[in-house]
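Per reviewer request, we include the raw input and output of the structure prediction for the construct analysed in the revised manuscript.
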Amino acid sequence: MSDNQPSVSVIIPVYNSERYIEETLSSVFDQTISCYEIIVIDDGSTDDTFHIIQNYKKKIRYVRQDHKGVSAARNRGLSLARGDYVAFLDADDLCKLGKLQKQIDILEKNSQIDYVHSGWCRIDENNKEIKQVKPWLYAPILDLISWLKYQPVFLGAILFRKSCFKELDSFNEQLLQAEDTDFLLRLAQNGANGTWLKELTVCYRFHEESLTRNTLQKVMSVNEVINAFFEQRELLLSVKQLQREIKFQILMWSVWQLFSSGSFEGISTYLCKLQNFSNDNPMQTTRIWLGNLLQYCKKDDYPYERLKSLWPYFKDAMGVDDADWQRIQKPLDWLLETEIKLKTKQRIKT
């Protein structure tokens, strides 16, 4: 960490991260810039995090607080930040080499840009790459509509000008999750301009054991944020007119998140909510649902055939008897089998 005025403040909220915090810190120490500060906010850890951090106290700024949640920890870090730019990094994630310098270069060359987003890769607990995420492929423009429609949300992949946080309330400490979605929507609504660095700059740690538990809360929080967003009276008419489309997409995304994570508990609830956005008969409605879920399968390279496990949830949401369901299921099976065959042919060609 530089003793001079830092150009960038890297804020790391930490809670019981003894396993990964050293590797996370090293990924920042290895960056190609020297004028930075690392602010670690320990949100009341009860493991050995405190003692591990002591080995680096000359290289970082360390603050310990009672356990208040990640939003409070990030806000505390922001109140201490001295840099012109701000980056956030979770205590188990990793910066790729050159991340900060590349994003700073873009901001310094264009004063009209307020933040630089980028891609990321998912890694497992042993740093094995699971998936590369390149959000610019489906959200090429970072405006309010893109944030609403496509939700390319990952704070660790973004570098902000500090001025972004001076014009808005920071992270909502009342939200259990989706505080990042809430902030980014408010930022875009306030007219902030973002651009892409079309590279993978950070590694997001994927924890299998906590996935099911966290996904339901994440889905609930995102829906809460979206619903609150559209309740604002001052929304532009052009944005208000997208309300039905956006809410349908978020509910469809919710079903996908729950299904793909194995959190089947909440699927029926969100399918029932989706019915409010359909004027079609049950057969057409379920075909639309399947079509949307197939798009998620393509995007995430997920096995199509597993979608059949959703049929009982479709049936319950439709409220039909066995005979009616048989009539609905037949075209669903045909559509799914057709897509599976097309996917197989494409793989053979490549």
